[in-house]
Amino acid sequence: MPSHDVLIIGAGLAGQRAALSAAEAGASVAIISKVHPVRSHSVAAAGGINAALNPEDTWESHAFDTVKGSDYLGDQDAIEIMCREAPDQILYLEHLGVTFHRNDTGHLGTRAFGGASAARTYYVADITGHAILHVLYEQLMKRSEQIDRYEEWFTTDLLQDEEGRCIGAICRDLRNGALEVFNAKTTILASGGCGQVYTPTTNGLIVTGDGIAQAYRIGAKLMDMEMVQYHPTTLAGNGLLITEGARGEGAWLLNAEGDRFMEKYAPNKFELASRDVVSRAEQTEINEGRGFPDGTVALDITKVPRRRTLEALREIVNIGRDFAGVDITREPIHIRPGMHYIMGGIKTDSDGETTVSHLYAAGEVACVSVHGGNRLGANSLLDTLVFGRRSGAHAAARALQMPMPSTPSSWVADTEKNIAAIMNRPQGGRRIGAIKNELGETMNEYVAVFRDEAGLTKAHEIVRRLRDEATRAAIDDRGSIFNQDVIAAIELGYMLDVAETIVVGALERRECRGAQWRIDYPGRNDEEWLKHIDISMNGADVPLVSFSPVTITRWQPEERTY
Ligand SMILES: Cc1cc2nc3c(=O)[nH]c(=O)nc-3n(C[C@H](O)[C@H](O)[C@H](O)COP(=O)(O)OP(=O)(O)OC[C@H]3O[C@@H](n4cnc5c(N)ncnc54)[C@H](O)[C@@H]3O)c2cc1C
């Protein structure tokens, strides 16, 4: 049975950064990923990573922008930590070999991003996540004596001892279907977000909320789950992202009448207001009939010099050409707000500790909460690195002071039974794909940029029905080698759990804050709602809601304008 000091589930940026810091602290580490690590979704990150590294910039300014961007729901102690540690993370990556853009003077160059009062986004063209992920992976390989990589292994369940401590996980080797108990003193979930709960989404097929649901099922609290970010510039239909870097480089948003409408909604920042503000502005233009017939507005990247676009935004040149048939260097491209990111997740402190003993979480799966009601673009990569590092160090320090728990290998029996039950379902129920599509479309209709009680209640009813249908959804592949059918059935269960917590959180918060815009409860209501919504599972399998305070250190809530 594999036994390690620290078990890390997920090998995107958060997981890899956690693995390196746990190894540096002297721990033996296992890192598990359901896909090859460099195919983790962090590889898609495009526009860059924030840090106040320039001498004219300050961490306080970065922190204030983040607090304001969060609509005052972010915990300010955690935000301070993130913004103070940001410059060191950029230098760490640069020294490892990440080829960040350099300006004409040879210094690290930045681009502007939304909601920021200074240009503080460091980038590698529009492939920043790709560049960082590969460099970190080289370091994992270099440390292979301490870090065991389990690539294409799928974690199905977390394990707890009688006192409720997390003592590892059960994982399936995708190559042959074998189940294995992974014994661990401490476990870090770094398994990413849950974009596939929505259709369309900018997130890839693997982003199915597994870790959020696994932690929830063993009693961990989730927090801020209602806060789902719609990115302002996604392609209609397929949801592909056009990076905010385009607006950072100077692109304009235009409605079908040719008006640069952001002037009305954010007269100081225009296209570079925070994402929730821009997405609402676009949706308002579309809803009020000033959009195009395909339910979009236009992003005009021709404002950016062509040479610069070809150099700094080359991936979106390809996306425009290949997926919309548009040469973005010569004509505007139609875009609309689309699901992109979850600010909520497993509730943690600033060392990554969750409410389940010996279980940590970092990256998009976690909610520290540094993003509150709305994440600023380019703060997520930063979150993965800062809190990935801190979780790895803390989990290692704890693990090095305790004996290895002993987990009987017979604990795979329940998982074996569950998988056999999926394999043996009779044909005839709804298809997994059909249930998933209905889920995604329901969330995109009722739990999107604008929300109200009637729509959310309807979404909740549909999610409950789909949960029931999912238990009968049949699969075709009954084999053991790379059986993606059985994985899809398990992932569907995770997505439905996560969807329910999002809907319940959105029903609960009766105000407008960040991404949660309740048209039936206009305005932000600090008196009643300046608090986090925590959600946990109670015995009756119904989400249990409680509240926790927002930590305010130095920035009192103010009216938020851009
Ligand atoms: C298109 C796009 C562009 C973006 N651009 C930016 C940007 O420019 N700047 C920015 O700051 N943010 C950006 N973001 C957001 C950012 O990329 C993500 O929030 C971040 O990379 C998440 O990293 P992570 O390590 O938490 O998770 P991921 O990179 O998603 O990694 C999750 C890992 O968990 C593993 N895993 C999941 N479930 C299981 C399971 N059951 N068993 C085993 N392994 C499992 C996966 O295999 C993977 O290794 C972007 C997001 C998208 C979608």
Question: In terms of topology, how is this protein built?
Answer:
Elements: E1 3-9, H1 13-24, E2 29-33, E3 49-50, H2 59-69, H3 76-96, E4 110-111, E5 121-122, H4 128-142, E6 147-151, E7 153-160, E8 166-173, E9 179-189, H5 210-217, E10 222-223, E11 228-234, H6 245-248, E12 252-254, H7 262-265, H8 275-287, E13 297-300, H9 306-312, H10 314-324, E14 333-342, E15 345-347, E16 359-361, E17 366-367, H11 380-399, H12 412-423, H13 432-446, H14 453-470, H15 484-508, E18 512-513, E19 516-517, H16 526-529, E20 531-537, E21 543-549
Parallel strand pairs: 1-2, 1-9, 2-6, 9-16, 15-17
Antiparallel strand pairs: 3-5, 4-5, 7-8, 8-9, 10-15, 10-20, 11-14, 12-13, 13-14, 18-19, 20-21
Helix pairs in contact: 1-4, 1-11, 2-3, 3-11, 5-15, 13-14, 13-15, 14-15
Bound molecules: flavin-adenine dinucleotide.
Fold and architecture overview:
This protein is α+β, with helices and mostly antiparallel strands. Among the domains are: 233-337, Succinate dehydrogenase/fumarate reductase flavoprotein, catalytic domain (Flavocytochrome C3, Chain A, domain 1, Alpha-Beta Complex); 410-517, Methane Monooxygenase Hydroxylase, Chain G, domain 1 (Up-down Bundle). 36% of the residues lie in helices and 18% in strands. It has 16 helices and 21 strands. Strands 1, 2, 6, 7, 8, 9 and 16 form a seven-stranded mixed β-sheet that branches. The mean pLDDT is 96. Flavin-adenine dinucleotide binds at residues 9-15, 32-35, 37, 40-42, 44-49, 128-129, 154-155, 190-193, 202-203, 206-207, 210-211, 241, 341, 363-365, 378-381, 384.
